[in-house]
Amino acid sequence: MLGIIRVLTTDNDDVLYEHAKMMHAYADVKSITQCILNQPNGIFDDESERIAIPKIVETAEQISKQHEVRAITISCAADPALEETRQAIDIPVISAGVCGVHAASMVGRKVGVIGIRDIAPPNMVHELGEKFYSYSFSPNIRKTTDLFSKNAKEDLYHVIKDVVESGADVILFACTGFSTIHLKDYLKNRINIPIIDLVEAQAIGYQLIGIN
């Protein structure tokens, strides 16, 4: 079983368990989900990430002690607290960003990264290396809760369309909230290059560990 850490604080079960449901539907991953406390807007800038790091480590420790999980994933594109969590617990720890990067690298050479922050997650840029093509975001969508606005998907579609037309050969989401709103499903008949969803990428990463 996989322990999923959500970095968006919510008491809405549909939102909280959406990533677990997607991983189960995509790759039959069995999981337990827990969110960190007191971050209703998730991680959207350096300060919110800094505050979240000890919460993520603490949540990972709780999950690993209270549930029979074989691995933990931090379901956030920025991979916050990845190394800290690996040092704190003795089971494998993966994260959305690094899983997404390696999935994108398998299918393209010009990776267009789409997120909600001012700059691309540094972990993604570093891991992509020469395959990093560009980073883009919608000015109307700057925090996770903005994704639930009426025009969010349409705004993101226009951003992604411009990236594809500029020459990108694969799109990599840099926000797990895009999974929550099923952005890939919305785009699949509108965009003609591969799209890497971070929740699906985490499911693949978990499978590669070779446990379930």
If you had to describe this structure to a student in words, what would you say it looks like?
The protein is an alpha/beta fold. 46% of the residues lie in helices and 16% in strands. It contains ten helices and eight strands. The strands form two sheets. Strands 2-1-3-4 form a four-stranded parallel beta sheet, sandwiched between helices. A four-stranded parallel beta sheet has the order 6-5-7-8, with helices on both faces. α6 links the parallel β5 and β6 (132-137). It comes from Ornithinibacillus sp. 4-3. GO terms for molecular function: amino-acid racemase activity. This is Aspartate/glutamate racemase family protein.
Q: Please report which band the strand proportion falls in: under 5%, 5-15%, 15-25%, 25-35%, 35-45% or over 45%.
A: 15-25%
Looking at the structure, what is the overall shape? globular
Whole-number radius of gyration?
16 Å
Helix content: 40-55%
The secondary-structure element order is EHHEHEHEHEHEHEHHEH
Q: How many helices in DSSP terms?
A: 10
Report the structural category. Answer: alpha/beta
Task: State the low-pLDDT regions, or none.
Answer: none
Q: Let me know the largest β-sheet.
A: 4 strands, parallel
Q: Count the beta strands.
A: 8
Order of adjacent strands in the largest pleated sheet: 2-1-3-4
Distance between the termini: 5 Å
Mean pLDDT metric: 94
